[in-house]
Amino acid sequence: MKQRIASRISSIAPSLTLAITAKAKAMKAAGESVVSFGAGEPDFNTPGHIIDAAKAALDRGCTKYTPSSGLMPLRKAIAEKLRRDNGLDYEPSQIIVSNGAKHSIFNACFALLEEGDEVIIPAPYWLTYPEVVKVCGGVPVYIEGKKENQFKFTAEDLERAITDKTKLLIFNSPSNPTGAVYTEPEVRAIAEVCERKGIFVLSDEIYEKLCYGGVKPFSIAACSEKMKELTVTVNGLSKTYAMTGWRLGYLAAPKDVAKAIDSFQSHATSNACSITQYAAIEALASPDSEVQAMVDVFARRREKMLALIAEIDGVSAVKPDGAFYVMLDVGGLYGKSYRGRKIEGSIAFSDALLEGEKVATVPGISFGADDCLRLSYSISLEEMEEGLRRIAHFVSELS
């Protein structure tokens, strides 16, 4: 009998982030008092003028197909954004609008990877990267970002990992899950290795606007024209404009890569939602002050979360410079027991914490960091304080 499910799909692990968020929501719906640190989205509503732009598009009857790569006015707006914010000069034909940045990442991997190509993924990593690489025929190769270096890898680490099978580096700055932001000199050193070795880079810059304390990200494609020809830059509107449910991302790529992706997308999904595209044009015209107001709130939450973590014995955290996550190091508590249940590993820790204290976190094993839990500070200060109080109580109960 033939195998029912294709091996390329059956080997893919479901998203732990979405699973835990769904479980926490179900517990809340059942009347339980749950604090969830699992959110991977801003807890703000989409700005009103962006919503109004979508309503206006509906009223104008803009409900038909668009070009598979996106509306030309939107691709021009994205090209202008890349010039203004990132120092990158792309023609609209080099920009492909997709159904979220995750879709853009899949498209890039599908277009670039042959069966058996190695893809270097720095750990801790966003849990989707390895799964996308595997379903596209690639082989994930992990390099470790050291805690003492804010979870960042170095150019030397990269060089040691490259083999004659290496095709692609996935580079994420600011990072999910660590919040690490690479400096311009660090990015240039990594780019020099990629240029010399002829390695493509998929640069995921979805959190670029969410940085704190004057830290600024630097786009690796801006290092040189040679590097630009080896880079697919991925971004979107989900985090910056609180538009996670609208599902719109985009990529900018060398001409041949963009053409290949457009051809594939025209058969796979066709265009992203037409209404969302009109809303995106309005979003990209938004003043920076709107985004900064949200960033300022995240910055205050970040400081509060770190201060509360510092008061809990046996755990620690590396201060993040971007995104809205903290990696809580709980590895020193493994081997202890909670109500007779021995805690070994981040899944066991997270499960016991959810069952015992009604606090939802994401186990670090899903990010390649089993000694950590990921906490999102995209929740209210009141929820954060209560959640960390419960975590402190949980830790005090360990024996």
Automatic annotation (TrEMBL):
Keyword Transferase in annotation: yes
Protein keywords: Aminotransferase, Pyridoxal phosphate, Transferase
GO molecular function terms attached to this record: pyridoxal phosphate binding; transaminase activity
EC number of this enzyme: 2.6.1.-
Cited Pfam families: Aminotran_1_2 (PF00155)
Cross-referenced InterPro entries: Aminotransferase_I/II_large (IPR004839), AspAT/PAT-like (IPR050596), NHTrfase_class1_PyrdxlP-BS (IPR004838), PyrdxlP-dep_Trfase (IPR015424), PyrdxlP-dep_Trfase_major (IPR015421), PyrdxlP-dep_Trfase_small (IPR015422)
UniProt enzyme class: transferase
The keyword Transferase is assigned to this record: yes
Single GO BP term: amino acid metabolic process
Cofactor: pyridoxal 5'-phosphate
Record-annotated membrane-spanning stretches: none
Family annotation (SUPFAM superfamilies): PLP-dependent transferases (SSF53383)
CDD domains to which the protein is assigned, alphabetical: AAT_like
Domain Aminotransferase class I/classII large: 33-391
Family (UniProt): Belongs to the class-I pyridoxal-phosphate-dependent aminotransferase family.
Name of the protein described by the UniProt record: Aminotransferase
